[in-house]
Amino acid sequence: MNQTFAAILGWIGNCIAIVFFISPIFQFLELIQGKRKVEECPFIALIINILQNSSQVGKSLRMKQLQSWVCNLIGGIFTMIWLGIWIIYYSEFRALQICFLYFVMFECALAIFYVFYTMIPQIAAQWICMIINIGMCAGPCENLLTVCRTGNYTLIPIVTSILNLANSFCWFIYGLGQSDFSIWVPNIIGMFLGAVQISFWAIYRAKAGGHWDPEEHKDDNANNNANDEKPVENNPETKPEQSPENPDNGQQPADNAVAVNILRAN
Questions:
Q1: What's the per-residue H, E or C state across the chain?
Q2: pTM value > 0.85
Q3: Fewer Cβ neighbours under 10 Å: the N or C end of the chain?
Q4: What is the pLDDT of residue 188?
Q5: What does the CA dihedral 41, 47, 50, 51 come to, rounded to 10 degrees?
């Protein structure tokens, strides 16, 4: 591959990746506006993203790859912002808990960066980053099971999924051109996962008629939860049998005993 073309493709891929890291803004704006629950915002995906950013910045600085560490540094800054908002709403604005969780998260990110920058051999760093990259591409899939169960296609971040597909495509072509399996292997998987996410979004959006109103589906969700709970069955051994002719025959032995005692007393 021509080096100029490779450089241009690399910068295009990095620009798409930066927008990919910024794209959760739509979900968090809905959270701030009260249109989305904190449980419906990405968390696992953000954790994987911060692993990706921290490890890639460390590895790329070590290997003097300007494009990669600039992209992941910017992506890491935005990912930390989204994680901070998630922690604030998840902890219900408890200041001490917010500060503790954010401090732990920040220290973990720095530790990962330091390990990849100074300690891990280059070949091991490439393999680990490749695995983390696959996890990052799979991140938007974390709500697919919920989408299948409820039909709520809005839980799939469609903008993030499209950017995921476009980013993976650019880096797949780049990796093939450079004959670097650590680049094209995770990104061909990323292309597949991006296509899966977009397909699920399109299918369930069509089923919902192109519009999802949570108020209209409250009863459906309540019925699903009710079906999940098993009804308590009465023990037939503890319930006296009754005949159609005499519905009170289950009480006859006790009533007869009382009558006998009264006659004896008289």
A1: CCHHHHHHHHHHHHHHHHHHHHCCHHHHHHHHCCCCCHHHCCCHHHHHHHHHHHHHHHHHHHCCCHHHHHHHHHHHHHHHHHHHHHHHHHCCCCHHHHHHHHHHHHHHHHHHHHHHHHCCCHHHHHHHHHHHHHHHHHHHHHHHHHHHHHCCHHHCCHHHHHHHHHHHHHHHHHHHHHCCHHHHHHHHHHHHHHHHHHHHHHHHHHHCCCCCCHHHHHHHHHHHHHHHCCCCCCCHHHCCCCCCCCCCHHHHHHHHHHHHHHHHHC
A2: no
A3: C
A4: 93
A5: -160
